[in-house]
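[job 0412] stage=complex_fold ligand=uridine-5'-diphosphate status=START
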Amino acid sequence: MLVDEYIPIIGKGPVEELKLLAEKLSGKVITNINSTAMGGGVAEILNRAIPLLNELGVLAKWEVISGSAEFFVVTKKFHNALQGAHVNITDEELDVFLENNKINVEQMDLSGDIIFIHDPQPLALIEKKKEFKNKWIWRCHIDTHAPDRRLWRFLREYVEMYDAAVFSSPGFAQELPINKFLITPSIDPLSLKNKELSKETIDSVLEKYDIKKNKPIVTQISRFDRFKDPIGVIEAYKLVKKSVDCQLILAGGTAVDDPEGTEVLSEVQERVAGYPDIHVLQLETPADIEVNALQRASTIILQKSLKEGFGLTVSEAMWKEKPVIASAVGGITFQITHDYNGLLTRTIEGTAYSIKELLCNPGYAKRLGRNAKEFAKQNLLMTRHMRDYLLLFLSLYHPEEVAHL
Ligand code: UDP
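[job 0412] stage=complex_fold status=DONE, emitting structure tokens
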């Protein structure tokens, strides 16, 4: 059984506990709904969580809402506004959002025992709840600690219709009259993205992209999104490069629900002209082995986000025992304790300073990486995440026993 493959990593006890919890949900159908099958952290988690839950005997399904290009432009604006960007969303755009949700309501099977909605794009499907009288959960994966108030007021009316809301950090949880839960995301140590790789596989990926093996590699892997601050990464690298020789990899793919990627990518390409040691890679989606290999080949992993719901790229790097330098924002601060299992920074200059510090002190970098792996093992693995989800599902049937946020 696949689930037993986690025993060598986390031990027998936690795996047995998962099986026991899953048994209590026997016969319940749990339908997960989000807005993209590929690209970004939510799809990444669902791709692994659904088979694992099924393996445990829970009838988990996954459906993706459909939407016009206009809808995804609007929901990307929602995403930016919820993460605090100054975005003007018109009444017509709110209508595009509602209309698209209405179309999906008619097309989707929403009869499962638990409907588990991920992020704002499918939020308004909740209108169907009265028809089925089933349980609905809204899982917010983004950094909502300072959302655009007008948009939040609009969305809150829908959130309040849910039985429960889940956030990745206490700071993201808004005032709500429903049960709120804190559940951090996770990575799967058995996935192609995270499993051990042979040296040959890693080397072949470096060769494919013309990356030198004998020069330190600093890497950020992220969608080309302004909140990931690829331009800030390039500026930090340029400061480092004045005194310490190294290469920079900026690798990213696209997501169906993220229409801004092309524009950000061309800005990035303009900024790197004349720097042969900067490698801007456009990865296929999925490119799990390549991402895995690039992370493993790196001397340092960066995540210089300006806002971050959680930052699975940070978790992935920590699991691979890499020293991570990341911004002190959002879910990253849950993962990294400065100077213990990684370094937190706030500015381009601070990032450059930290890169130089680690490149010049390999022993220190190694110690941070070792602590990162241990932290990841205790906190960031899918088995812990699924335990939290199973308890959440069970709690819906025992609301009086819930201690929530
Ligand atoms: N990712 C990928 N290919 C890319 C860029 C990102 O596979 O070109 C993966 C990355 O490894 C991680 C996920 O997409 O698993 C991104 O999740 P994260 O939480 O870091 O950011 P999000 O995109 O959800 O904001």
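The longest helix spans residues 362-379.
[job 0412] exit 0
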